Amino acid sequence: MEITIKSPVDEKEIENLKMGDRVLISGTIYTARDAAHERLIKLLDQNKKLPIDLKNQIIYYAGPTPAKPNHVIGSSGPTTSGRMDAYTPRLLELGLKGMIGKGLRSKEVIDSIIKNKAVYFGAIGGAAALISKSIVKAEVIAYEDLGPESIKRFEVVNFPAIVIIDSKGNNLYEEGKKEFLSNFK
């Protein structure tokens, strides 16, 4: 079963998602990778306003390639989420409710996901061109000098993702591994 959610998200909606749920996201999501995250944290350290309001938002860890003619965006696949782990708890404290990427997250991030009732979604690496088809509008919001790593606002329709870590800390990477290994006992 696929669950459809609208972003910005409602906290109750996030709390109802369970590890392993397949989700189709429509609405607004933002892109940001490690260079942009570092700049966001520097602004916070200087008590300055962020270029985006993170409350109830979803950040997609991606650095899309430039758009080809007649396309909204180029390939837009997920990047390794662990590169954002040093910055993520602070952003979750500001109301960020979802992150989309690939790969494992640190214990500190998982603890912060639980504390802040957020969720970590996985997107399929290697399916960047397919994922890009769900992006109907893209615009640079901040840090244009970072090129593909600038912060962009995407309008998406049925962006495919899977709940990797739910708001209770259930982790598909851990549970999936246990289930797989149990088949060999």
Automatic annotation (TrEMBL):
Name of a matching Pfam family: Fumerase_C
InterPro entries in the record: Fe-S_hydro-lyase_TtdB-typ_cat, Fe-S_hydroAse_TtdB_cat_sf
NCBIfam families: PRK06842.1, ttdB_fumA_fumB
The keyword Lyase appears for this protein: yes
Domain Fe-S hydro-lyase tartrate dehydratase beta-type catalytic: 2-175
Species, as recorded: Clostridium neuense
Family of this protein: Belongs to the class-I fumarase family.
Keywords annotated in UniProt: Lyase
Domain of life the protein comes from: Bacteria
Keyword Ion transport: no
Gene3D superfamilies: Fe-S hydro-lyase, tartrate dehydratase beta-type, catalytic domain
Protein name: Fe-S-containing hydro-lyase
